[in-house]
Design goal:
The structure is a homodimer of 338-residue chains. A 6-stranded parallel β-sheet of chain A has the order 2-1-3-4-5-11, with helices on both faces. In chain A, strands 7-6-8-9-10-12 form a 6-stranded mixed β-sheet. In chain A, helix 5 links the parallel strand 1 and strand 2. Chain A is an alpha/beta fold and 338 residues long. Chain A has 14 helices and 12 strands. Chain A is elongated and about 90 Å long. Chain A has 3 domains: 50 residues, Orthogonal Bundle (434 Repressor (Amino-terminal Domain)), CATH 1.10.260; 127 residues, 3-Layer(aba) Sandwich (Rossmann fold), CATH 3.40.50.2300; 133 residues, 3-Layer(aba) Sandwich (Rossmann fold). Strand 2 of chain A pairs antiparallel with strand 2 of chain B. Chain B binds a DNA duplex (30 and 30 nucleotides) through helix 2 and helix 4. Chains A, B: This is LacI family DNA-binding transcriptional regulator.
Chain lengths: 338, 338
DNA sequence: GAAAGTAGGCGAAACGATTCGACTCGCTAC
DNA sequence: GTAGCGAGTCGAATCGTTTCGCCTACTTTC
């Protein structure tokens, strides 16, 4: 069921069929219709491999996701889903690669075998081997998150520093004087994970500027860790009346620990974070949070990448998302000191 | 950077390079090493499109996931992740397609363009157009879930009927006499979604056999729906003392509504469900549930599919997962009637 | 009415791999 | 001494497209 068969049955040459399909040269309306009729009847679609070979492009994008030993966060999940749909809208296929490093098997397969026209990389570290690898290969890519020197590359990112700054300001405005930051895990920070570093910096700056006292805690990405982390905070820093966090996965545990400690939210304790909107709304009370626009981000990443694929010499585009804080029900005035 | 370049630089023909790489014919150790040295130096990897064209197979699997307007459940997410890793282990690439129907663009692209050697289909309906389409095309596939007549096809599924049966039995053993089933959404049931239908049947059979009273409620896949659903149950059926559910996403709302109604779990009310283990453990108290083995399922699906791709004439394999119920802290003896 | 242009079509050469048949050695067996 | 065989290699065909150059008619233009 190839183009030759279509050509034979419609009594024209293979090239005519090709031109009828692509429209790159004139084909008389009569033959075009004849060809189309045969194609419809036989349900022909050009073979992707042959086309890729000839054209030198695969019409496929790659999405490099972190291997799931560490579970995906809701934000990441939403992002993956939105990339999938954006690629679909652009009539591009999406190849998934679970890789953290440039030597991982699937990364090697996809990049070495030239299976994709461009790549979207998630979970970028400040110093990321995949980025340097791809730069050497002149394979277009967009990173979600920035490396330490992001000037020449194409990226989108969430401005965690500013978001945490806003959370701190919001809490300080409400009268809180002792605020804790629940960051991501210590390993993640040690591995140079940008958002965790930038949240840390934003927090330090904000508490300094507002003259409030801030303490930072690292916390693994799950509810149990969130629970023990809050217990630890309450024990070591009983003066703390508000928490801000970028650790989505810890939220259920944070909430539970506060509840168990009898600290009603928001009357006795406030929580303000950065999270996917859906996730923030699952909480009780619903979480005052900067809603990370994962869906927009996915669409933007695909847009940037497509642009880069079609015109590799265009200056790389970059976008920093700074979503506003949605005021919900988890923050309130600081309780009167006892 | 193609095989011809490698051949030129190592002073042999292209075919010799190919044989040196594949080992399908003898190549003297000396030339093999010479070729390998050139390859290592230049970092050559065979072009996937050319290879696919010649070999007639793409070394790629397709995973058809439901479009995300309706959000993926945790179980589905875990499944996708595990398929991704299993494919990677088998040295196969994974193409993602967000399609519900056989006419969806990406389904058409992937299937029509012969981009994959086989497909894994999620969210199978009892009567699914994609299945009939693929059967006509002789393209290997594995379904997650079964159609109404699954005899000739290759599938894996979770035995929701039996699991709900076990939940009901567990609750009945604890003395509960009025049990509610919180099923998935009414639309899903109307569209012929197997798990929801089979849960319904399993529930009906089990309550009949145990002689307890059962009521079934449909519920959309989110916390808010779960909350109102429980409120409705408590209003319309105040005699109910236990809930069983396959609706993962509703769990936070179920829990919250019971809490707000002052019904302590498990002292005053019991909940037993079917859920991803991680999700079940996030609850408070942790949920007594049949832990759906999403990771095993992903690996099995890939195994079955690979087997079918390599030997299309082998009888199609099938597997019904019946995970045991993990007793956690959300079920207890029925409260004494007031 | 010849030159020039255009619409419509065809054939063949790519793209980069794999694989089949054929060829040349050197060795063994009779 | 020659037939047979296996190891090692090469050339050419092939997979299914796209695209370039060329060719033929037919129209237009002066």
């Amino acid at each position: 069921m190839n183009i030759g068969e279509i050509a034979r049955r419609s009594g024209v040459s293979r090239s005519t069929v090709s031109y009828a399909l692509s429209g790159k040269r004139a084909v008389s309306e009569a033959t075009r219709q004849r060809i189309q009729a045969v194609i419809d009847e036989l349900g022909y679609r050009p073979n992707a491999a042959a086309r890729a070979l000839k054209e030198g492009r695969t019409r496929t994008l790659g999405l490099v996701v972190p291997p799931t030993r560490r579970r995906l966060t809701f934000m990441q999940l939403e992002f993956v889903a939105s990339v999938m749909e954006a690629a679909d809208r652009a009539d591009l296929d999406l190849l998934l690669s679970p890789s953290r490093d440039d030597h991982d098997r699937s990364f090697e397969r996809i990049v070495g075998g030239r299976r994709v026209d461009g790549l979207i990389l998630m979970e970028i570290r400040l110093d990321d081997p995949r980025v340097t690898r791809l730069q050497g290969l002149r394979l277009p890519f967009v990173t979600i998150g920035r490396t330490a020197r992001p000037q020449g590359t194409c990226w989108i990112d969430v401005d965690y520093a500013t978001l945490i700054d806003r959370c701190v300001n919001h809490l300080a405005d409400l009268g809180h004087r002792h605020i804790a930051l629940i960051n991501r895990s210590a390993e993640l920070i040690a591995s140079g994970y940008g958002p965790a570093h930038r949240a840390r910096e934003g927090f330090a700056d904000a508490v300094a500027r507002r003259g409030v006292e801030g303490v930072e805690f690292c916390c693994a990405d799950d509810a149990a860790a969130g629970e023990t982390c809050v217990q630890e905070i309450l024990r070591a820093h009983p003066e703390v009346t508000a928490i801000t966090t970028i650790n989505e996965a810890a939220l259920p545990g944070i909430q539970r620990a506060l509840e168990d400690a009898g600290l009603n939210i928001p009357a006795r304790f406030s929580v303000a974070g950065v999270a996917a909107r859906y996730w923030a709304e699952q909480f009780h009370p619903q979480l005052t949070a900067a809603d990370v626009p994962a869906v927009d981000m996915g669409a933007t990443a695909v847009d940037f990448l497509v642009e880069r694929v079609t015109d590799p010499d265009a200056p790389p585009r970059q976008h920093l998302f700074v979503p506003p804080i949605s005021l919900r029900n988890s923050t309130g005035p600081a309780p009167a000191p006892r």
